[in-house]
Each structure stands twice: as C-alpha cells, then as structure tokens.
Design a protein that fits this description.
2 domains, alpha/beta, two-stranded antiparallel ribbon, 14 helices, binds zinc ion, 7 strands, 5-stranded parallel sheet, Rossmann fold
Amino acid sequence: MALKDIIGQERAIEILRGCIKRNRVAHAYIFAGDEGIGKKLTAINFAKALNCQKPVTSNELQVTSKNKDSSLVTRHSSLIEIDCCDECSSCIKINKSIHPDFFFIAPENGEIKVDVIRKLQESISYKAFEGGWKVIIIDEAETLNQSAANACLKTLEEPPEQTILILISSMSGLIPKTILSRCQRVNFSPLPFDKIGKLLENKFSAGETMLISMLSGGRPGWALSNNLIEKRDNLFNEFKNLINTIGEDLLDGKDSLEEWFEWVHLWLRDIAVLKATGDTTLLINQDKEREIRDISNKAALSDILKLSNTLYNIKNLLRFNLNKKITLNHTHFLLKETFADSL
Ligand SMILES: [Zn+2]
C-alpha cells in the first residue's frame, strides 16, 4: 500500500506531499479526526514516502496550447504524485514495523506512560541508522498521561535533527495545548457516503452496502470490518436490555465502553429523528424501524435529546478512567428514567 491507495483523505495527503515537495517537513504533526478514517495508514505511508529508497517523485508535465486569441500558453499539470514505492527494503521494513528509524507507540491498558517516552527519547538521540528520517508515530496521543506528555513536550521543544513526531488522535481536544501548539495540524474527515459505498459494493449485497455505509459514519475502518451489522445487532440488544436491567454482562470482554457509547449515540439519534419527524426514510437503522418506534413512543423528544447529551458527556469522561460498573449503573438509571417500561 502507498499514499495513492488511501481513499477519501486527498486533502490531508496533498498537504503532506506538499511538505515533502517543498522540503518543508515539520518536526511535529497532529493528525486529527474520527477513528477508522485513515489517520494511521496515512502516517505509516508518509513515513515510508520520507524514507523510501526509490520514491515516486512528482513529475510536472508542461502542456502548451493555443488560447482564444491564438497566443500560446503553457500549463503545468502534475501527473504523478510523490509517494513511496512500497517495494524497497525501507518500505518493507516499515510495513513490518522493523525499521530501526521507525517507532510506533500506542497506549497499553488505556494510557501511554512516561517510561515509554523516555525509552523512545534515548533511541532517537542517535543519528538515523539508515540515514533518512526518524519517524515516531504516537497513536491515541490523548492517552499520554501527564508525565508522559511533559516528557513529550521536551522533545517538541528541542526536536532532534531529521526527526518527525506524528501524534494521532480522535480526541485531540484532550491533548495539552502546549503540545498541540507545537504541532502542524492535519485534519482528516469522514468519507462521503458514496465513497464508502464504492469500497463495499463488491463485497456486500446492495442492501447491506447501503446499511453498512450509513452505520459506518464515513469510517472505512468500521465499514470494512466484516461483521458491522452483526455487531450492531448485538449491541442494540444490549442497549435494549440495559433499559430494563443493570448490564453486568456488558463488562465482559470490553476494554472500553467508548465504542458502545458511540453506538448508543447513533440509536438515540434515530429515536429522536423518528420522534421529531415521523419520517422513517431518515433513519440510519432503517431495518430496526419497529423497535426504534417502540422506544421513541415512550419518551418526549426533549428527554431523548437531554439523554443523548448526557451520555455524550459521559462518553468523553471515559478517558479519565471512570469506574465501569458505576458508569453502567448510572447509564442504566438514565435510560430507565427516560424510557421506562418501553420494552
Ligand atoms: Zn520504497
């Protein structure tokens, strides 16, 4: 895979290509945007493009043509874009995460600790082994704990030569401003509905493609995970059960409740839309119309919106290690209060 294969993030990739082309690579970036939309893939392939031994270079073709008044004009059209070859030993080593100048850091048990950053700082204090760029990717950078963030800041204040730090985050608002202000921001957006549909059309039936495209919310990472509909069904059942009983089972096998809360947000959106408009064509979960209608009949629109807002705030607080059991009990209470005896 190369930068050219990443779908729907043309603007972000154009910015990064521009940095390479103009030889103005920043020493730190923040890749910000929803989960599952290609930030990590872009970071890895940007690292490959920077260190590639046979890089594809931009090739501008001069096109000369006659204007209306017969004067000759020359236009430049860029035919080939800067990219990695995906074949040389550098690209292969980065693909396998065994390149000596490529570092990928992700949280363990929900946080990135200072010893990980210190170890990294020691590794990057040497010159690049292969003479190119040292690239450090920090995934879910909002999980840097306070001392890790302080250590990171030190690297940002005195960046080692030929070193690039790429922070990736779907919740960049939680990263300290002192860090963010030292990074060039590159925003990633969810993919338009039709582009997600194109990715899926050879893998799923027309009906499934339509439903998955809507459920994925523009995130190819979600759309292409084969069991999205099945997952939705299971989690929807959990949601319905939680209205009536405290969901002890929800705690099993879940590293975090964040994804579950994202789904809840989607159902509450449908419940509110149906309540407000009565128009079933506006539902995302159109195949669940009957159940959504049953639930929406049990509450006033203002209460549904209030609940949605409260649960959204709880979801954002999950990053601060809320006790899962207490969070679920409280969520159960809120759901029951809003949709009492709905099922
Ligand atoms: Zn290469």
